[in-house]
UniProtKB/TrEMBL annotation:
GO terms of biological process kind: phosphoenolpyruvate-dependent sugar phosphotransferase system
Identification of the protein by name: Phosphotransferase system EIIC domain-containing protein
Keywords for the protein's UniProt record, in alphabetical order: Cell membrane, Membrane, Sugar transport, Transmembrane, Transmembrane helix, Transport
Entry keyword Cell membrane: yes
InterPro entries for this protein: PTS_EIIC
Phosphotransferase system EIIC domain residues: 15-342
Length: 348
């Protein structure tokens, strides 16, 4: 039997966030690093098509991985953690029921995954020691199927959060181009370290052209700040993971240290101006990626931007700006210490 641990709402939330952050990294990093490479190598061998399919499919496991790691954060045993992973997946929206059967459609709504993981942990802890010899039979039914069903029923309402944010961002596209580029850049720079999917937002609102380019550049601006800050306090592997696309692993840091958005927003403003000046364009499918897999830069080149302009907009300005912004807010104004970028991995 577990020794019941008294948790405050803050501690409870931090554990859910820590498990979620690690689950996202584990689920998405393989495709972020290797997906584009394997797809490019498909003409050179059938094995690369299989490898591309494998790393892409691994993403669909993200909700389950999050649930398991959230359970481990609360020191639940392996069986309990796996059941919480099942509940998180079932309530995630990562699959759709069609006439042909169950079809995987993405990683689901991360906000819903977090809520269901937290609820599943609560129910599991509540039932601890009360089911006796029937635990193996009843826990999967009550927590896995039961809480998973609650997740599915909640999903349309929780998804309204993403829809509402998307509609708000969509109003920026009606503004003067420079203002639009700056505001979209800032919005996506913050969203990328929140539970909201930037890819889902980009596709949902159909953002394209300069707006999509500014969104991708804004995500890059956030990446640059996190990389510069992370390298001071984290191991090189953590910083590399952020650079390669695992920005959402810093969600707990956003909650614990909200001032982390200050350098991110300032750098996003600079980068948004860069996106406007160098006329970076994109499509809805690339708006939410930034430099992950070089999706944003490659799309800009495909849409007619010169290579040197893409390098300026996606690398020189965001990363150069990140260095300047970090010096300004850390050393000159002393608004934050680099400890706010410290990543605390999920542990058992």
């Amino acid at each position: 039997m577990l020794k019941e641990e008294q948790l405050t709402f803050k501690n409870y939330t931090n554990k859910v966030l820590a498990g979620t952050a690690s689950g996202i990294v584990i689920g998405l990093i393989a495709n972020a690093i290797l997906g584009g490479i394997f797809k490019a190598l498909i003409p050179y061998g059938a094995i690369f098509e299989t490898l591309a399919m494998i790393v892409s499919t691994m993403q669909f496991l993200t909700p389950a991985l999050i649930g398991v790691l959230v359970g481990m954060q609360f020191k639940l045993n392996p069986m309990q953690s796996v059941i919480i992973g099942a509940a998180a997946f079932l309530g995630s929206g990562a699959y759709a029921v069609t006439d042909a059967g169950i079809v995987l459609v993405g990683i689901g709504d991360l906000v819903n995954v977090m809520i269901i993981s937290g609820l599943a942990v609560f129910v599991t802890r509540l039932l601890e020691g009360k089911l006796g010899s029937l635990t193996l039979i009843l826990l999967p039914i009550i927590v896995g199927a039961g809480v998973g069903t609650i997740g599915i029923l909640m999903l349309p309402y929780v998804s309204l959060v993403t829809t509402t944010i998307g509609n708000g961002i969509n109003t920026f596209t009606q503004l003067q181009p420079l203002a639009m580029a700056i505001l979209i850049s800032v919005a996506f720079s913050i969203l990328i370290i929140s539970p909201i999917s930037t890819v889902a937002i980009g596709i949902a609102i159909g953002i394209s052209g300069l707006g999509a380019g500014a969104a991708a550049v804004g995500i890059t601006a956030c990446t640059a700040i996190l990389v510069i800050g992370s390298q001071r306090v984290n191991q090189s592997g953590t910083t590399l993971a952020i650079l390669l696309g695992a920005m959402k692993m810093m969600m707990p840091n956003l909650v614990k240290h909200p001032r982390i958005v200050i350098p991110i927003v300032v750098n996003a403003v600079l980068s948004g101006v860069g996106a406007y000046v160098f006329s970076m364009h994109g499509i809805p499918e690339t708006a939410g990626f930034g430099i992950v897999g070089l999706v944003g830069p490659i799309q800009a080149v495909n849409m007619g931007s010169e290579l040197w302009m893409v390098i300026m907009a996606y690398f020189v300005i965001p990363f150069g700006g990140a260095v300047i912004v970090d010096i300004l807010f850390n050393k000159v104004l002393k608004i934050y210490e680099h400890e706010i970028f410290k990543f605390v991995p999920a542990t058992n």
